[in-house]
Amino acid sequence: MSLPFFIVDVFTDKKYAGNQLAVFLGAGNLSSEEMQKIAREINFAESTFVTKLDKENNKAEIKIFTPSQEMQFAGHPIIGTSWVLMNKIFDNSPGEIKLNVPIGPIAIHQEEDLIWLKAAQPKFWDVFSKEDFTLFSNLKVSDFENQYLIQEVSTGSAFVIVPLNSKRALENLVLDKDKTDEWLKKNCKTSHRGLYFYCIEDSKIISRMLCIEHNQLVEDAATGSASTCLQAFILKYHASEIEAINYQGAYIDRPSQIHFKGKLSGNDFDIKIGGKTQFVAKGEWEA
């Protein structure tokens, strides 16, 4: 069985930066186990599999896999897959499409060279102490932003949002893998567990996402799902409206830019993230 595939770099204005993504077409006959094996073989942060395609109505259904598990929602795979469909597969380069993922339909639109998605309503879960983090990292209590909480937030995938008070603390961050893994397993509510550290310095959002995968401490270049959680956190605790760029990936030499555009009205969160995508390669995969 031969599957057409595309490789793109997401959340970047140039190739060989941002977050890598493999997009496999015609995957409706693959089992979840087969998709997982392919995702493990290509070993990007995530790969997507288009299981249904409706060209007449500009709709598609996809499944998302990391090298170790299936994801219910993930930002950079949705943005990158949408770019491939809108610019390489669907006729007439439509400005809007609908993408079905496990958590439900996602509305996508393109403005010039930015692809935007609208996230689901966030859930705000447990709050954690700064002292917890001193047990498995090199952070001191004084490295944390005093005004804001450390909290697990989900918009489909959950992340612990950790506000730091300086770029220096973010840049010098070191985690103990085993102690971090133990803390995540003990405290996080879902099987997907990640830490999203960020700071706001000179009105600039800078972030790092770290998690444990295949018993390794992994840092992600650009995490769209974590960015929707961070945007929800900022709207709830910082300001009720935001238009900004979240800079991630610089510390692993994959600089990324995730565009934020959000508003909180009463209890309704309007969370949008956007990004540019760069075409890298295409080919045929023998499944």
Automatic annotation (TrEMBL):
A Pfam family assignment: PhzC-PhzF
Pull one GO CC term from this UniProt entry: cytoplasm
Q: What is this protein called?
A: PhzF family phenazine biosynthesis protein
Organism source for this protein?
Flavobacterium hydrophilum
**Gene Ontology MF terms in the entry:** isomerase activity
Name the family: Belongs to the PhzF family.
Active site positions, chain numbering: E46
Give the matching Gene3D superfamilies. Answer: Diaminopimelate Epimerase, Chain A, domain 1
